Amino acid sequence: MSNPKFPKMLNYEAIKQQFDDSSTESTAALSAPIESEALHFEDDPQPKPKGLTGSRLRSYAFAILTRREYSKADLIEKLALYAMDRDEVLKLVDELAKENYQSDQRVAEIMLSSQKRKGKGPNRIKLALKSKKIDASLIQEELKETDWNEQAYQLKVKKYGTKVEKEPKLKAKQIRFLMYRGFEMDAIIKAITRKEDEF
């Protein structure tokens, strides 16, 4: 018994029309993988390089460093994904660091500025640097020069206003908030007890 849905001779246009017009769940499930494959091959003009060595690896390193700053550790891991030899990656990254194309110092300074804008205290900043395997001593002077008391106070005012709370529960809430943001207890106490007219 012949089935009209499965003719002996396949009519590509008819099948395509059927899939285009259909809105059933099964059709969507069937067409989704085809669509994603097409996107992968047609819409990705620059596929990820594999097995890079020598000048090609160096060119790729320069290409990604022009887009943004990378810590030494991050750059090694990024290049190792596409390089033939990890030892070559280590040697190349050391060379790039010596030539100042890669700089943990610059990354640390960018992170410090960014984290301060986000209202983060010194402890959170040090933690962020550690996650990138960057030595906090690179920005030790900048950390020392920052007025963390003022930073903590401005953050407290932004979140809770200028009123000095007497209620223990509300004070504890402010302390927890500022501790979570990475401020030292000394700066926190000064921030939550500082009156609006104090400088």
SSE topology sketch:
Layout: H1 12-21, H2 25-42, H3 54-67, H4 72-80, H5 86-98, H6 104-117, H7 122-131, H8 140-145, H9 148-160, H10 168-180, H11 185-193
For the sheet with most strands, the description reads:
none
Q: Characterize the overall form.
A: elongated
- Kindly, what is the distance between the CA atoms of the first and last residues, rounded to a whole number of angstroms? 93 Å
The proportion of residues forming helix, as a percent range, comes to 55-70%
Please provide the ordered H/E string of secondary-structure elements. HHHHHHHHHHH
* Helical run tally: 11
- As a whole number of angstroms, the C-alpha radius of gyration is 28 Å
Taking pLDDT < 50 over at least 5 consecutive residues as the criterion, the unreliable ranges are 21-45
Overall pLDDT score: 78
Query: Structural class from helices and strands?
Result: mainly alpha
How many β-strand stretches?
Answer: 0
Q: Which percent band covers the strand fraction?
A: under 5%
Characterise the protein shown here:
By secondary structure, the protein is an all-alpha fold. Helix content is 65%, strand content 0%. It is built from 11 helices and no strands. It has helices at residues 12-21, 25-42, 54-67, 72-80, 86-98, 104-117, 122-131, 140-145, 148-160, 168-180, 185-193. Helix 9 (148-160) packs across helix 11 (185-193). The longest helix is centred in the N-terminal third of the chain and has 18 residues, at 25-42. The protein is elongated. The protein starts with 11 loop residues before the first helix and ends in a 6-residue tail after the last helix. Residues 21-45 have low confidence and may be disordered.
